[in-house]
Amino acid sequence: MFVEEISMFMMDLCLVQVSVDQHPDNQEDLGPNSVLVYRDGILMAAPLEALIQHMVPTCDYYPEQKFLFAFLLSGRLFLRPVDLLAKLCHLGDMEQKKLQLEGRGRDEGRLVCVVRNFVQLIAEWVETFPYDFRDEQMMVMVKQKCIACDPRLRRDVANLLQTLVGRLTKLERYEEFLERLGQQELSQTTDIQQQSTTPSEMCQLVQDVTDICPNPTILAYQLTHIELERLSYIGPEEFVQAFSKDNPPNLTATDGSSTSQSGHHHSDRVPGTPGGSSGSDAKKTRNLESYVQWFNRLSYLVATSIVRAIVTHTRN
Q: Region Disordered: start and end of each range (predicted)?
């Protein structure tokens, strides 16, 4: 199911890429509705600036959740999240000024409605892509926006910040656990290598997992729990960054400059990790890599357990 959704997303992303290539980015003078391409009532493609404008909530309009997820996920291929947030804040401020100039600024309810919808937009971003906010600039903008909010929205802002801190704290604890686990594994491997000189001696020093848990059903359940936990920490954006590994896009910064990553990658580094362009969508986690390592080791364990059976018909 997840693979099918990713495939559909990549097909839609190709349509967006074609539209971005066909239309210049400096179409801010055009109305957003005039450049949005719909098919059967579904938004299929549009220039980047029009998509950003379509994402800005107003008092009478709030973007669909499907569109928010798709654009926040794929938009990072063309624009860094921090630059996208800066553009959204700018357009949100313009929307409030527009209400004031039209004489509707007297109606404080409409202004509060605009701000409340904007806070809701950031809240959905935090809930879906919390790792984006590990960027210091992102946090600064969010805090500034929260401080400037109407006091009547204080509870909504508090809930937003509480959710964000909770998600990032949970991630930090998980990363600390993985680091401790890696250090423990390295220490045990070093001790075994120092105490053994032949492969047979090394095998005798390694404790068999079946001795710890002889029941295969319980062992399978425990391994499933571990795998699901590791999967739960993978952000959707990590798959996009992995898919773009061999074809890093040019990213546009807020100052209009174009940035791109080096075309040379190694198996132990993915786009956005330290060593790439400073203007790229910096990768904030290594949860996908950690899961791949876990899956590979699990595969080795299963294969080793199978081939250890000398009699062929007992290997099932």
A: 244-283
Give ∠ CA 121-36-280 in degrees, rounded to 5.
Answer: 60
pLDDT tens-place string over residues 234-256: 999 998 888 776 555 555 544 44
**What domain range includes position 47?**
1-55
Q: DSSP 3-state assignment of 256?
A: coil
Bridge-based pairing of strands 37-39 and 42-45 is: antiparallel
Give residue 170's identity as a one-letter amino acid code. K
Torsions phi, psi for 279 (to 5 deg): -95, 0
Instruction: Specify whether 186 is located in the same domain as 287.
Output: no
Alpha helices in the chain (DSSP H): 2-22, 48-55, 65-74, 81-101, 108-128, 136-147, 154-195, 199-205, 209-212, 216-232, 236-243, 287-307
Is residue 70 included in any domain, yes or no?
no
> What is the spatial distance between Cα 159 and Cα 148, in angstroms, rounded to a whole number?
16
What is the reported pLDDT for 1? Answer: 43
Q: Which residue has the tokens 């546009």?
A: 252
* Tokens found for residue 7: 């495939």
